[in-house]
Fold this protein.
Amino acid sequence: EAGVAQSPRYKIIEKRQSVAFWCNPISGHATLYWYQQILGQGPKLLIQFQNNGVVDDSQLPKDRFSAERLKGVDSTLKIQPAKLEDSAVYLCASSLDAYEQYFGPGTRLTVT
Amino acid sequence: GQQLNQSPQSMFIQEGEDVSMNCTSSSIFNTWLWYKQDPGEGPVLLIALYKAGELTSNGRLTAQFGITRKDSFLNISASIPSDVGIYFCAGPGTSGTYKYIFGTGTRLKVLA
């Protein structure tokens, strides 16, 4: 069974630029999560989707971050404009039953 | 907000030794997940616990759901070099929801 796919793996941008990340969850998994992991910390949930509806986005900085999950499968996370403090690894995870979450390899974002 | 504290923060051990780490919460959890994260990769699910007192094994790994429901423990027996990595516990932030929060992590280094 294929795992969670993410792209790109690495991205370097300048502050105030825009960036987008893509995630393809495990087939059949209805729940999809985006996490931000700052170096030396555990992942922090940004947004959770159930099919194509948002379950929780309370920790998403909505003035600059947006996410969508069209057709309940793939998802994109966008940052516009980026700030230096957005430098982190962005992890996508999916879950069949909202309990056990399976993570992709992540996208390492560096904002200069 | 709710926090998960992991102990120890880091540890060096000799190959072949047993390892113990724990995770404590300020509130009751209904589910505990343990993950391992290698450098440059996403977290990999090791063990999931669903009931207070539950003891579950996965190869050389054994995890326990604390009786108070505010803690969980992970043991690794006969450590090997590939056990190196960061171990995270995770659980739902508020009972009845599936918004998971992650612990601060335990960094394990195995000396051959």
Summary: The two ends of chain B are 40 Å apart (CA to CA). Residues 46 and 62 of chain B are 10 Å apart (CA to CA). Chain B has a mean pLDDT of 91. The interface with chain A takes residues 4, 31, 33, 35, 40-45, 48, 50, 88, 90, 97-105 of chain B (CB under 8 Å).
